[in-house]
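Consider the following assembly input.
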Amino acid sequence: MAKTSSIKRSQQIGKIVLYLFLILITIIMIVPFLWMLSASIKTNTEVFKMTPFQFIPDVPQWSNYINIWTRIPLAKFIGNTVYLTIVVTLLQVLTSSFAAYAFSKLEFKHKNTLFLAYIATIAMPWQVYMVPQFIMMRGMGLNDKLLAMICLQAFSAFGVFMMKQFYEGIPVSLCEAARIDGMSEYEIYLKIMLPLSKPALSTLVIFTFVNTWNDYLGPLIYLKTEAKKTIQLGLKMFIGQYAAEYGLIMAGSIITLIPVLIVFLALQKYFVEGVAATGIKG
Amino acid sequence: MENTIEMTKSKKARNRKRALVAYSFIAPNFIGFAVFTMIPIICAFALGFLKWDGNNAIQFAGLKNFARLSGDTLFWASLKNTIIYCIGTVPLTMLASLGLAIILNQKIRGRGVFRTISFFPYVASLVAITAVWAMVFHPSKGPVNAILYYVFHIKDLPNWFGGDLILLTLILFSVWKYMGYYMVIYLAGLQGISAELYEAASLDGATTWQKFLYVTWPQLRPTTFFVVVMLTINCFKVYDIAIMLAGGGDGRLGTSSTVLVYYIYQKAFIEWDLGYSSAIAMVLFLMVLIITLIQFRVEAKYENA
Amino acid sequence: MRKKLMSTFLAMVLAATTLAGCGGREETKTQSPDGQTETVGSNVVSGADDAKTVLKWAIWDAKKAAYWQAIADAYTKKNPDVRIEMTDLGSSDYGTVLSTELSGSGSEFDVVTVKDVPNYATLVSKGVLEPLSDRIKKDGVDLSAYNGMTEQVTVDGKLYQFPFQSDFWLLYYNKKIFDEAGVKYPSNDMTIEEYDALVRSVTKSGFGDDQIYGAHYHTWRSAVQLFGILDGKHSILDKNYDFAKPYYEMVKKQEEDGVCRTYIDTNASQLHYSAAFSEGNTATMNMGTWYITTLISSLATGEYDKELVGDWGLVKYPHPEGVKAGTTLGTVTGLAIPTSSKNKDTAWDFIKFAGSEEGAKILASLGNFPAIMTDEVINTLTSLDGFPQDEESKEALKTVQIYLEAPYADNISEINTILDTYHKDIMNGDTSIDDGVEKMNKEVSSLE
């Protein structure tokens, strides 16, 4: 009897510690978000004022949330960014998981060298090859076109690398069994690999989404016409030559942060334990 | 005799077909990747041996760019800082994100919300989070130093953004920013571990720690490999964090905070010395390659075991 | 089940590629009347749709700064057969974007604004700017009106940009603080020693609101190091920067004595100079003329508290002993023609206009400082609503000699990188003044 109650107690203590820890993490992570909220309703001079630090300013500038739509064509920027993000994410997820299957479950000559070449390119900072790339893209007529951003982002080595690692976790025996059953590789990919890799696919979707949504340097170099610019370029417009309007930047950041968090929350259901456990027998 | 020859022939044919199928899988991604990314990267490699500013005629420079590296104080400073930053950030972030993932994989109420909160520093505007850190760690007005002063009675307050501590501040900042990101990867990896393995371990009387050591950790090896490789690469490529956190208002870094990609950017886009910046990038690339190869070897060894 | 998965899969692929393809057709393609290849749509335009010649102009802050449109409109009114299309490349990374855009040979711009001298040096060494000297001679443009500026950016006898805008440094001060301290306002003829003494006399050490800073130095290197070039005997191309030591020492001592905020603090909190001055506890601040319009408009909109900083004035930049008052630091923004332009003659005509006295008047009426500072221009500026009306402040706008912060040298960017790095180390206290300057000397000398 005593043993069960002491186990129960240690479990309870464990739980309390766990929740305390979670609260601590939450505080650490969420402070900047609260600061952003606070800054978004301040005037520019108030934003960085530290002594005294007022969380809610005397005169909250709710107008910031209205001005961001009128001062810059934020709606258009959001539209462009949404378009880019959706296309890039779709292409990236499809082509990466497709290629990753081959690297993970198929055998062919030069597999390892090719894979190494893929990963190796991730190591090169974009700043280094950006100029040759720009000159080449412009030669193809892609300067100042949204299509340029798609070409640059949709075919990354990162996606292939990540998906391959996840596929490693799916036993080869599944694929072998399917092959014996006479399924073609394409069918194996569609019917076995894809469904089993929902957490991995969700991860890739999240990362690609965030990357494209927050991309600054790419659009900066390639998108010149205002009608084509993206959110990050738009927010930078509030930083003029001589002054920066941080209140507006923060309000804009908050607004454009929301879709990302929504997508993340929505994909959470794919991170449920046990999804991949089905079908693994012997 | 004839049988074997025919068998070899059909085996060859099968292999070729298999290879073609494999290539067809890779093709969509690879073609786009090769054209838009790989070709420019190859050009960038070539640039390391040339002298070019983006407009004037390209001149051959042989190994001159590389020779220049040895006397370049700022290059060595950037290299040193980047390596230190890497050594600090990679293990800490990996452990933090793994721990976070394991905790948030438990059946806790509202864990989706906690996960989203952990992910937040990664998606938030860099301007915002660096501003908050600048305030929190402000040498004379921030709460951290206030606590050190009033609670711990430390008279000589540390300058978190000065030469001695800036790298530490950068490391802490990076761990904080990225642990949510790698937590997501670990979460996905954790989903792939069959519950049966844990059940079997329980039946064998394993403690929680033993379950972790003998089930979770080995099963997560491909994921850990990915995490460590990506962490290493991303640490070597650190750029905008350094500028925002250590750059003061004007985005310039001093010798204690300059990092490789910042120096590369200076050489490439401010001074338009594309050949030299490529040479520096090649050093970066080589280091990452070596480290990655080592990790590959370690991983392969485990796979074969 | 199989079919359904397959078809969903195919549908997605189809959708992705169609969308990607659509993106390509979305662009506005206009065929200009003279049969030029498709031009990319622009945001800010001046002039008729059917104008014969179209000039594409690279600028920044298209919507924030009114003078671009004003100048373009003034020109197209006089020249109705020209249309000007302005493209905003963004202010924060303007130099990078422009230099990248002009790399290779496919750029479509006819006129580019060259933001500062390092940007100018980069573009000149890349060989992408059209030399203007012959055109200047042919049209008989008088360069003496530009106060020596063009000499400082002439390369091998050739000039590649036409001065358009120019700002210079002066001293801003908060009259209220001086009144309350019972100290006389700064004068238009102060030596640097007198300046040091003045800011010390008005400093008040205290806590929070009580504290008054006599001076404020922004984190830019130019705010501290460049006092040293005012005697005309030194420049940052010297390869020896010992001339800057006394000024580093002066500022460091001021930091120690609480006369100004420490660099460590300003750097860590990324305090913008506008916030520092408008807080109302900064007695003087050395800064460029570009801040004048911001100060005026922020007071007008109420963003700055009139109680705190509404009563402000200007005086000429403090100078070393023996140097004439009105000697100061400056920057120049010019207009240039890319070699790839197809409308060079029209572009030249436009540039000439923008940099002329007429263009200067337009800039001045909007509160910006043109490259030509005639008495009339100065009058326009001082008559702006909100400009301090005391005689001293008006006098402050008259300069005698402007030394460019960054004079032309083909490796000016490399020099800047080195100097900025060690400046930061010195100001942050990571290295001593002597060591830092020593490193500057060594490394700039070792540049080929």
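Chain A has a mean pLDDT of 84. Ask yourself how this observation constrains the way the partners meet.
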